[in-house]
Amino acid sequence: MKISENNKKKLIVLTGPTCSGKSSIALNLSDLIPIEIISADSMLVYKDFNIGSAKPSDQTLSSTKHHLIDIINPNEDFDAWKYMEMGREIIDVSKSKNFLVVGGTQLYIKSLIEGLTIDISQNKQIRETIYEELSSKGLEYLYLKLKNIDPDSALRISPRDKQRIIRYLEINRITGLKVSEVFNVKSSQKIRDVDYIKVGLSVDKDDLNLMISDRVDEMILKGFVNEVEELRNRYSSKLKPFRSIGYKEICDYLDSKITLEDAINLIKIRTRQFAKRQRTWLRKDSEIIWFDEPQDLIEHCIKYVAS
Known about the structure:
Blueprint: E1 9-15, H1 22-32, E2 36-39, H2 58-63, E3 66-67, H3 80-93, E4 98-102, H4 106-114, H5 124-137, H6 139-149, H7 151-155, H8 162-175, H9 179-184, E5 194-201, H10 205-221, H11 224-234, H12 247-254, H13 260-283, E6 288-291, H14 294-306
Parallel strand pairs: 1-4, 1-5, 2-3, 2-4, 5-6
Helix pairs in contact: 1-14, 3-4, 5-6, 5-8, 6-8, 10-13, 11-12, 12-13
C-alpha cells in the first residue's frame, strides 16, 4: 500500500471500554500497515502481573513492536506524567512514521495527546508528614534532604527558610520532580509534529457484559489464582497493582474473606461497573469516530495512514 509522504508522524488512538476487542483490532491493523503499538493501559506497565491484566502473549509482543508494557516493577510508582513523557519520547525518537495507541486508560491518552499541567496545590497528607519530620528531626535535616534532592533550588534559599523548605519538599513529593523542573513547566502542551485520529468500536452493552464474563472465566482457567498466589509470595499485597480489579478479589479469596465463586462474580460485576464509567468518559470525547463493524474501523485507519 502507498504510505503518506507527509512529514508529520501519524498516531491512531484506538480506545473503548475494557474487553471491547481493542487488542484484536490492533493486531489486525499491525498486519496490514507498518505501525508500532503503544499501550495505554495502567496495569500493563507492571512486570509479572500478566493473566489478570490480560497482557499480550510473548509471541504477540515479539511479532509486533509494543511499547510501555512490562516497564516497571510492581513496587515502583508510575503515573500519567511519566506516561506522557515516555510515550512522547517513543514517538519522537522512533524511525517509524505510524503509531497505534491502544488501551482504555483515558488519563494516559489525554496526557499523551493534550499534555498535563502539574498540580502543585497543597497536599494536606504530605504536608503533615513533612511537619512530623520537622518536629522529630529538625529544620536542618529537612534542608539537607532538599539539598540532596534538588541542590540548585536549595542553594537559592536560606537553610532557615522553613516555609520554602517545606513547600519545596512538598512539591517534590507531589510531582516526583525537582522544583526547578516544575517551575519550567508553564502549562500543558499538546503533542507536536504529530497528526492523530481517535477511533473506537461500538459494542452493545449486553454483548460487552458477555465478553467481560467470558474474559474473567478465561483468566481463571489460565491460572489466575495461582498467579496471584505466587505474586503475593514475592511482593507485598499492599502494593498498588494488588488493589486493581481482579487482583483485589482474588487476594480476598486467598485471605479466606470470600469464596472463589464470590470472587469471580465480584470481578465480573466490578469490571462491568468500570466499563460503564469508561463509556461515560468516552461519550464526552467528541474527537472519537465510532464504528459498528471492526472492518470499517480498520479500513478507515488504513486510509488515514495512506492519506
